[in-house]
Amino acid sequence: MHIETPKNKINKSAKEVFEFLIDLQNFEKLMPENIDKFEVINEDRFLFALKGMPQIVLQRQEQTPNDKIVLGAASDKLPFTLTADIEALDDDSCEVVLNFNGEFNAMMAMMIKSPITNFMGTLSKNLGNL
Predict the structure, then answer these.
(1) Is the dihedral of CA 68, 3, 44, 11 positive or negative?
(2) Cross-referenced SUPFAM superfamilies, in alphabetical order (predicted)?
(3) How many domains does the chain have?
(4) Nearest Cα to Cα of residue 71 among 21, 118, 35
(5) Can you give the CATH number for the domain in which 116 is found?
(6) pTM value > 0.85
């Protein structure tokens, strides 16, 4: 399953956005209002839970300075990645696209597609409001 947000123009440099995203504590600022729990476990891992949903632990898997950050599920039960692709437009702005990629059976994909699409949209919108 692949979900991609539309490109989101941000009035910050690619470097500023990258540095914001590699500090995992900042993901709390991007979370939806219905967040139930958020905790940074270590510099590469955090957990969060939305009301009515199970806890999810995300772990930094890859990063390319000022271009890309890849977070992945720390559990094999729901294997997925969340990638932020950052493209510099000029010294003071960039575009960010969030990509979700996961391997799910058809039933699970049907159940989670809408909530994940909404979640990704919220992350993207809140990132644009920095």
Answers:
(1) positive
(2) Bet v1-like
(3) 1
(4) 21
(5) 3.30.530.20
(6) yes
Nearest-CA neighbor of 122 among 45, 25, 56, 50? 50
pLDDT in tens, 91-124: 999 999 999 999 888 998 898 899 899 999 999 9
Who's near 117: CB < 8 A, 6+ residues apart?
3
Largest CA distance in the chain: 45
The tokens 């909530």 sit on which residue?
115
What is the residue range of 94's domain?
A: 2-128
Q: Dihedral of the CA atoms 21, 24, 25, 29 (nearest 10)?
A: 40
Q: What is the pLDDT of residues 23-69, one digit of tens each?
A: 999 999 999 999 999 999 999 999 999 887 889 999 999 999 999 99
